[in-house]
Amino acid sequence: MKYTFGIFCMALFLSSCGSNTTENSEETTAPLNQEEATNDVGIVTVYSHRHYDVDKKIFTDFEEKTGIKVMVKEDKASKLIELIAQKGDDADVLITVDVARLEQAREKGILQPIESEVITGRVPDKFRGSENHWIGLTKRYRVLAYSKERVDPEELTTYEDLTDEKWMGKIAVRSSDNTYNQSLMASIIANSNQDEATKWAKGVVSNFCRSPKGNDRDQVKEVAAGRADIAIINTYYLGKLLNSENQAEVDAGNAVGLVFPNYEDRGAHVNISGAGVCTNAPNKENAVKLIEYLLSDEVQAMYSAANYEYPVVEGVESSELLQSWGTFKEDDLPLEEIGKLNSTAIAVFAASGWE
Amino acid sequence: MLHFTKRIKFSRKGWLLTLLFLLAVVLIPVFTILLRAFEPSGNSWNLITEFFLSRYIWNSLGLSLGVGSLCLIFGVLPAWLVSNFDFPGRKWLKLGLLFPLSIPTYIMAYTYTGIFDSTGTVQHYVAAWFGQATANAMYFDSMNPYFLTVLLAFCLYPYVYSACLISFSSGSSRQLEAASSLGSTAMSRFFRVGLPLAKPALFTGLFLVIMEVLNEYGAVQYFNIKTLTTGIFTAWENGDLNSAVRVALILLMIAMLFLLLSKWLKGKQKITTSTKTPILRRKLSGSKGILAMTFCFSLFLFSFFIPFIQLLAWSTIAYKGVVLDGFASMAGNTFLVSVVAAVIITMVAFLLLFAGNLLQSIGGRKLAALGLLGYSIPGAIIAVGIIIPFVFLDTTFGSDVLLGSVTGLVIAYLIRFLSVSYGPLKGAFERQGSRLDDASLSLQSRPVKTLFKVHLPILKPAFVMAVILVFVDVMKELPMTLILRPMNYDTLATEAYRYAQTNESAVQAAPFSILLILIGIIPILVLSKLIKR
Fold first, then answer.
1. Could you tell me the domains of chain A?
2. Which of A49, A181, A300, B259 is least surrounded by CB atoms within 10 angstroms?
3. ipTM
4. Which long-range contacts (CB under 8 A, 24 or more apart) does B498-503 make?
């Protein structure tokens, strides 16, 4: 009876969207043909926390170029890491955002050192784990977006400036549960110590314009609407606002300027999205091939153009918009240290009352 | 006579085995994961107990009670109105008020904050018509706990509404007629007859609402309200799953408290009605009719129509910026899996209920209730509990039948959503009472026959409602679908989520959300014909 019912409903559905049916059947047969055609070079299985459209496009291009079929499962890093730890016999590559997640994966023992010289040669030391368990794919900076109307950027040159009383009620930022904030905090700790960092966090909290909520775009909107003067955001979110289909969002994006802080001393805090080869990867060779491809000039430029991220490979030009934000100094701290300080950062947030 | 008892004994054994098997399917993953609460934890647990735990608990309780109370108003009142009175638009609103079921809560939250934020629709039009100063003066920060409470109630009140609808429109007519012929007013009929009769159904609906609120993640996290569920994910994302499971255990205990509370509130009353006499709806004329219509229509307007139109408007600007390849196959995946899962889960829930009732003398009902545990823990946590036995079975039998297959996905949905279909069925079963069993059994028919000949026809409305509820729940489900799905397998829900996630707004997710919502409406429209009198 259940089958009859199911078939009935399915029939109903298919008849209701007539022209789509043919598309549908093409959809189901296409992967089969491809699999037959690519039997010899095989597959690569990717577990990814990067959900961007450009990633899909990059995987398709890789399939076309190499014949290697890319099998993807997208979810949050925490869940993917657990799945690989429990099963782990089919995952080849783990891709995620934020270095703390990559370090977590390494600590869980689900990543193996990458031995490709192509890869290690293209990624600067500080954007790789010390034993190459993971490597960076793209860079993103956590910076200060200030109101062009109300703030003189000369007054705002460092993260430490944020604790100044003159910004009382003027700072907009998201929750401390957010991993980008945690990594920023880890970099503050690494560059000073836990006590100093707690003092800094308390200082910033006392300057909040509202209790933290929303996402990075919402913080820029607070500044644009005049309810805050400074927002702490990742660079690519401004790119997204400036390229929005909604004119009001574009205006909001144009209302702010960016400070890449600490340009006179240690440089701006930089984070990565990155990849690693899984410990039991059944298609290790293909996994390495894929990561090499992700580091090619072509793909690095695609990341930058489509997703407003900075290429991790030196010498690859970032997109025009990113270049318009100017050149700046970046923090030389190896990212591995930031990843390792994640739980300290969380403790500092908890003690400082940063919601 | 001897022959007769022997047959019953035998079939009872069969039912007991069925019951135990179903329980094993549900409970093995639940206990597998809960055991991790007793393993050593990382740093998170100290932080949680030192700084957050009491806040997590109070926020979770506050949100549940707030949304629950609103759902009572949004659910009971319109159900009573559309069942007992005739007013303009009644027939249409009766169905329309179920539509918000198909809007995922995080989409509702993103949509409404998108409407009210400083670059949103309201600000845009107010500024255009009345000037920027008025717009600034009118601005309010929609990202606050009270507004979230209302938004969650918009998404969840249909659980209460649907339960009351069945209850009000079947069975209670005779009592209501009696009351009105004795001269009672509409108000007192509602409080003294309608409400008591609907109590069992109402509390099962309310219980579902509270479970959904307790397990809510996306919207709550966006508003940055720290609840037990956001605490679970924070700990997990910091690499400390064991601490996360400990918080989940506390969440489970709170869920159990709510279950006991709803049992206690339901009381011990046994009302058995099984009349098929249709209710005579009174015509509400003039201002009363307009008032009833305005109330129901406003609820429909805010909980469904406005967000739907906003998503539609966003779709028209967003469709160019998103990848629509495989749109049809996604819709197909979504629909097919939801239909299959909904039918199977409702059948299994019915088996569980029937077996529990039949084995009442040996505590069958209490055993059956254990099968509902899967609804009291966040789906992502259950998913890990499911992965472990799946990996074990797959390795044992040397196949990949379960993990990363659609079959596995349906089993996962079963473990999680059994409760959703069990609720309405149980409500109807309780009102109908067990005297039918006695009558049928004494006529020497076997329990299976009783099931098909006696229960199913009477339970039809509840059955249909159960299928609808599970369908939309499966259709919207994310945490389990994402992790347990086959490779390269997308549904509308996962794709909407992907866009909402990467952009942290509902704009690009809109085309997918719209199609998702429309698919969710199909069973409501099609199946409701089956319960039409």
1. 41-138+271-319 (3.40.190.10), 140-269+327-352 (3.40.190.10)
2. B259
3. 0.89
4. B498/A51, B498/A74, B499/B322, B500/B106, B500/B107, B500/B110, B501/A51, B502/A51, B502/A52, B502/A53, B503/A240
